[in-house]
Amino acid sequence: MKERLLKKDDVKDLCTKASEQWETYVPLEDIGRDTHFIKLNGKNKRLLLDRLNLDYESLLVPPKVIAFPQLESLFKFQDGKIIETFKPSVKRLLFGLRACDVKGILFMDDFYKRNFEDIYYLNRSMDKLLVIVGCKSPHENCFCTSTKTGPFLPLPGSPERAKFAEFDLQLVDVGNEYVVEIGSKKGEEFISSYSKFFDDASKDDIEHKKQAKRQAEEAVSLKLEFEKAVKKFCEDKVSRRMYERIAERCIYCGGCLYVCPTCSCFNVFDERKSSLGRRCRNWDACVFDGYTREASDNNPRFEKWNRTSRRYEHKLKYDYLVTGMSGCVGCGRCLSSCPVNIGISQVIEEVTKA
Ligand code: SF4
Ligand code: SF4
Questions:
Q1: What is the pTM of this model?
Q2: Which bound ligand lies closest to the C-alpha atom of 260?
């Protein structure tokens, strides 16, 4: 499919127009000078869009929160009866994602339908349009070129292309415009619906796009021997001592897991006021003592090092063995969020040098 051109000056108008048909999420600068995906709603969408930031280095809170909120009410109950509070699915547009976060979303989509269909997650995730704006200046903790998850995803027809469409549209910054790559039929239909915003890309634009992609790849400075590390994990060649060393430093705050775009652990609890109650779920973390504690008070992972090993083995061994893709997309958030400076990148370095 031929590339198109979108002027940067038209992006806010496009998002405003699209938000009439789509529940639209965009990265907006927020309190604390961080950027988050926020829903465009209300009468003052243009005012919100004044905070649009498509040049962010990395979002600390991943876009998984859109389909998997930190706390959600699943249903209510009263007098022995369940009251469904399920909202009908709506079309969602996620505009301005990074490639690694799209991989994270696809990983979560697969997880929440792999062994059973989690209707609460899937209801929020099933009908969406994924628009990547590729990184120009990656964060120093990113290593997506090592995990092959960025800074851009391969196009349909290219040898490394996955079986299914990984993105709908992918925007490459070439100065005052974006060159728009089309990844799916849905993406093509979106462009047709808002055709007045898109022009044909010229040969020069395509050349600029290739150059911009090369520069973005070169800008990812953290290079890791990722495949070697995964192989060592799969062959059980990682020492217990390494986990013990991490466990000695880790304060078990759970930060690295909460911000990880592929961490899916949750807890379920009920709360009630008189006869009316509700069942909720909230994010949990496999490094917490209480996560693996059983009703009998037995805890099969009582020791800290053991819970640490679970975390890294899950990402770099079991996810890979079960799905063929690792549970790490190289976003670097675990290092950015950790108060004691432990990230999976350092674990990978440690394992590959041993
Ligand atoms: S383990 Fe760390 S680098 Fe990998 S996806 Fe999760 S937060 Fe990102
Ligand atoms: S963020 Fe750091 S200290 Fe907190 S649980 Fe993760 S590794 Fe441990």
A1: 0.95
A2: 1
Estimate the crossing angle of helix 304-313 against helix 240-249, to 10 degrees: 110
Structure tokens at 202: 């010229």
Residue 160: pLDDT band with limits 50, 70, 90? low
165 HSE (CA, 13 A, CB side) = 17
Give residue for tokens 């796009």: 209
pLDDT tens, position by position, 145-159: 999 999 999 886 665
For residue 76, which phi and psi values (nearest 5 degrees)? -110, 165
User: How is the chain split into domains, by residue range?
Assistant: 4-73+84-219, 226-353
Q: What digits encode the pLDDT tens for the residues 217-233?
A: 999 999 999 999 999 99
Indicate whether residue 62 lines ligand 1 (CB < 6 A).
no
Ligand 1 pocket check for 311: Cβ under 6 Å: no
What residue owns the CA closest to ligand 1's atom 4? 328
